[in-house]
Amino acid sequence: MLKQERFLDCYVETKFHVPVMPQEVVKYLEPAPGKIIVDATTGTGGHSEIIAGRIYPGGRLICIDRDEASLAIAKSRLSAYRDSVAFVHSNFIDIDSALSGLGVDKIDAIVFDLGMSTFQLDDSSRGLSFQKEGPLDMRFDKSAYISAYDLVNNLNEDELSQVLWTFGQERWHNRIAHLVVESRHQQPITTTRQLRDIVVRAIPARFRHFRIHPATRTFQAIRIAVNRELEAVEAGLNKTVGLLKEGGRICVISFHSLEDRIVKFRFKEFAQQNKIRIITPKPLVPSQEEIRANPASRSAKLRVAQRI
Ligand SMILES: C[S@@+](CC[C@H](N)C(=O)[O-])C[C@H]1O[C@@H](n2cnc3c(N)ncnc32)[C@H](O)[C@@H]1O
Known about the structure:
- The protein is of the alpha/beta class.
- The chain folds into two domains: about 5-120 and about 230-305, 3-Layer(aba) Sandwich (Rossmann fold); about 125-225, DNA polymerase, domain 1.
- It has 14 helices and seven strands.
- A seven-stranded mixed sheet has the order 3-2-1-4-5-7-6, sandwiched between helices.
- Helix 4 (about 70-75) links the parallel strand 2 and strand 3 (about 85-90).
- The protein is globular and about 60 Å long.
- The chain starts with a helix and ends with a strand.
- The structure holds S-adenosylmethionine.
- S-adenosylmethionine binds near residues 19 and 43.
């Protein structure tokens, strides 16, 4: 039986990132002794910790993340479970090689909790937040070749505009792209503050004071482009379906409509091919109680499917 307090405790105790929809993840992932489970986006280990405590004895948890710093924290957080947990610094696009490297052929369940963690957002040196001064970086994986600096300073105006529209659905994409290109003729755009100020100047004054900060969509779009996040979701899901045992579960938590749409359509297609049964025809969302305790969960959507 799951206890609400158990999870609410973990909201209070977690230092780095509060795991989203923990009760639902446990309910649908069905972690149990002996099972092999993958956390494809381990971050600082919030969901992993909850899962690790439920697969002992005999189970195996494989923790994947692109971000080495997050993974190091997860590793120390899960040290009590070290015999049953493996950590892999990798993009989940490469889940097949990650598993074969560990001698794992098929898995019982997998969770994807997409996007970035508050641990990453709060670290100003990563340049993910327009509220903190930092270098224009935004890479989840520090060994990746392209950073936000490269895109912002090298894409031409049309390409930049396209990125802002496609990945941020930014209404003022043309104006922002134009001002970015004009500004970088004077000096390269190297910091989050420079970019934020350019975006604010590009948006007409009467449209700057809506519910979200005017730079929100631009930062989201550039982050998604830098990390090629949507391609990763599509490719990661495609590979994962073939790795699940019969009856195995896949849970995907997404935070914006672009990701959710990919998950929804991939699931639909897999269902038509008789590969999976969709368990959540409509995505599940966090309870009011969870949103109150963890406002960052408010836009989460969880979709679940089961391998046939
Ligand atoms: C929302 S956080 C996960 C938080 C975690 N579930 C928890 O409860 O602490 C998302 C994580 O996914 C990682 N990530 C994003 N895209 C990835 C990819 N393609 N492959 C592997 N990890 C990825 C990010 O580096 C980040 O640490």
